[in-house]
Amino acid sequence: MSLQDYKSFEQMPAKHEIVFIGRSNVGKSTIMRELIGARVAVGRRPGVTQKPNYYQFGDLLVTDMPGYGYMRGVDRAKQERIKDLIVRYFEDNAGRILCAVQVVDTKAFVDIVDRWDGRGEIPVDIELNDFLHDLGIPVVVAANKIDKIPYAMRDGVLDGICVRLHMLPPWHQWLGQIAPISAKTGELGPLRTILKDRLRAAGLERYVNVIK
User: Fold this and answer.
1) Which pTM value belongs to this model?
2) What whole-number distance in Å separates Cα of residue 60 and Cα of residue 171?
3) pLDDT, tens digit, for every residue of 46-70?
4) Which helix (H) or strand (E) holds 155?
5) CATH annotation of 3-210
6) Does the N terminus or the C terminus of the chain have fewer Cβ atoms within 10 A?
7) Distance between the two ends of the chain, CA-based, in angstroms?
């Protein structure tokens, strides 16, 4: 992704925006395809999306940011450039962003965060989540791949995600900010509800049907 690519998105004429972010290969593009009918590139190889994909509906922009973290076949320097551009994008467009949907892999999230913590490092997911809150951007955590967690364990796993995102468990008290979903099985109801509610709360009833 070049600086020219970045500037073209910075200048997109829109008053409101919903941005999807997350690690590579957590299912962002698949979720967007299901939610708004977007024709997006999806694949098993991490790093398929290496620049923002945007979809405009009048004054509403829905943006799929490139994945952060490990990308097979993408050198570390380019990964860092992508991360830096994501940060700049949020800084420059914070005023119009209704919310950022941070997609996480429900099954792997806690292990990834704890592994970074064990090395004395701040996990990228936590760093980005904190950064968005510092900018005043509301964050919705889309806990994807919930179908891989046995029903009896789901509450405990979701509580663990809350703890690591500095949110007091139980997770049920955050139903407007945490959406357990499965893009693979089409279980996107909780995320649909949250996004529709946020559009209504912003006085954007006319765009509610953008979310399928």
Assistant:
1) 0.88
2) 30
3) 444 557 888 999 999 999 998 887 5
4) helix 151-164
5) 3.40.50.300
6) C
7) 30
